[in-house]
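INTERNAL AUDIT FORM
Audit reference: QA-55
Scope: verify that the stored structure record matches its stored sequence.
Auditor: D.O.
Record contents follow.
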Amino acid sequence: MHPELAHPEIGHAGIGRPGAAHAGVGLLFNGALIDLLGAEPDAVEFLSVIPERFWQDFGRDRAERFAPLPDEVAILDALAERHTLVAHGVGLSIASGSTFDIDHVRQLAEWHRRYRFAWISEHLSAVRVQTEVTPDHHAGLALPLAWDRDLLDMLCERVARTQDVLGTRLLLENGVVHTPVPGSDMSEEDFMNALVRRTGCGLLLDLHNLHVNAVNLGLDADRFINGLDLDAIGEIHVAGGNSLFGAYLDSHAGPCPSAVFGLLERTAPRCRNLLGVTFEFHETYFPGLGDAGVLGQLQQMRAAVGG
């Protein structure tokens, strides 16, 4: 095992020792936050950035596949001067059966060497599928997964290789379940625990995703959390959503519901290796939040984790 996998990052500048009492509070960066962060740089202990926002991917059939976006990279460089950064990937699609994009992992590793992210996370999901036209068609939403042993074996190999290339532990995030797959070999939480045991990876617990599943499917969020290896949780996400045509969506549409803060209050103190709690919102909803609304969410997060 890589040394950093046995001893994951717990003392990065700007983030304290692991555990809820020392966990940092952060924001998923978007362009609407630039002025707020300029005026209140100490409002957060870290910023989470989506690395795919800072490069152009021309596709796997191109000799020169990736190109940095100069204006976006300039913003990232400026953020790195003032903030601890963590990476939250959205493009790997590690659970896609048709492909494993190791070049995407290598690209992320290059950016990790440049910015030394305090930790790196990705989604435990499949969004890319192979078609007759392209091997990388994006489905537009996370596809349902069967929590079975075949998927576990495939993912263990991929997670181990990803961590080896990155040179650090990977945190994997639980997702929204749109259409559960019947007849799985195990529950989602048992599947995630097995992945942790076999690969040494960590978990990113998205409490709003759990809330979405509770509203739409009747899932018991507390029971799900109680079934997880809470020592594996390195980061927690909170967010807001809205309803459309009778379904509740993980749209990151403004402030967190009170139920999500309740989950945070009950869960964070039990996560002995928690490094940070991150508020996600989509920039199109910033006018409804404003600076005061964002700062208010951070204050509630700190209160929930006892900071």
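Auditor finding: record pair retrieved intact. The chain has one domain: 3-305.
Action required: none
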